[in-house]
Amino acid sequence: MTGAGKKEVHRRGGLWYLRPMKKIRLLTPGPTAIPESVLSKFAEPVIHHRTSLFEARFKKLQDHLGWLFQTREPVLTLTATGSGAMEAAVANLFSPADEVLVLNLGKFGERWTKLAKTYGLTVHELVVDRGSAADPAEVKRLLTAHPAAKAVLFQASETSTGALNPVKAIVDLCREHGVLSVCDGITAVGILDLPMDDWGIDVLITGSQKALMLPPGLAFIALSARAWQAVAVSKSPRFYFDLTREKKMQEKQQTAWTPAISLIEGGVESLGLLREEGLQTLFARHEVLAKCTREAASALGLELFSKAPSPVLTTVRVPATFSVDQGKAIQKLMQEKYGVIIMGGQDELQGKILRLSHFGYCDVFDVATGIGALELALQELGHSVEFGKGVGAVLKAYRESSR
Ligand SMILES: *Cc1c(COP(=O)(O)O)cnc(C)c1O
Known about the structure:
This protein is α/β, with parallel strands linked by helices. It is built from 14 helices and 17 strands. It has helices spanning about 35-40, 50-70, 80-95, 105-120, 135-145, 165-175, 195-200, 225-235, 245-250, 260-275, 280-300, 325-340, 365-380, 390-400; strands spanning about 10, 15-20, 20-25, 25, 75-80, 100-105, 120-125, 150-155, 155-160, 165, 180-185, 205, 220-225, 315, 340, 345, 355. Bound molecules: pyridoxal-5'-phosphate (PLP).
């Protein structure tokens, strides 16, 4: 499908370009941009995993992961995307007919429910208005109503709506009621503070293509001592995702199966970069980028969608005068004409919201560029835009927060 004038994506020199040449910029909630020093690791020869060389590299990754999760428990590395670690949690913690509670804020909350039902669990959901976070009082009601429940499965940050859950309050309630807190931190670990051991989170999960600045393909999961006790009595079937077997192997810097060796090499580099930045600086950076994005949205007359906005991604409503088709066209235009990839809404939110991500290998200039492309697209689709107003708001918010 080549042809004059066709805005086709092609690959050259390791970077993606549009024709005429435009860089592709990922401002999506995974996959995210990857630092150059990490990319260069993928050009290196693959070492064999049953070697001391691999074990030394893996040990380094494990050490970085413990730092990132703020835990002394082993953080297990699985070759899968984040959903694989979610499945591993369900398959290893419970037995068929167990009851669990799910906080359903959006698409990823729904994934917990589907997974739990697949393993024959009985699910009681708290369905939250799209864009809102779970109210601790409602969580408490749910826990009280279902005293036989074994766990609460929830997201720290619901990527489909941009809502941020009150994680600490949820975890505290779980402890009070003697149930496990199982936290999908896939778009939270490495973005905002989730001290696993201090808060007593029982299961914490993340994936490589989010804040860890890696390609998709690795998932990470850590379990508290209480969670490991649940694993010991769980009778659900599992094979590839048998966490007991993985733990035994990973204590010896080995994996049960052939791991994604190159991604592990990349992870040593990318987590090293995050560690040099330091946890507090990392969290502060994401706070600032979120503030810049929110200020820009407001300067462009776009209403925030999420009532519990997060430092992870900013969701905004498309202009009120826009039809669903025009709403979808914003994202399409930004992508096809300007090479800036953002996400729109999913399911019933299609064409109604825009999701602007600002985590991972992302700085204020990435945000300013994204907002610049958004200004162009909105103006082209008939929204009244004074060029530079959004970009100006980004720079102003940045300057104010970095004095
Ligand atoms: C991306 C994401 C996932 C997992 O998605 P995968 O495609 O399996 O990596 C799960 N939960 C949240 C909150 C996410 O953002």
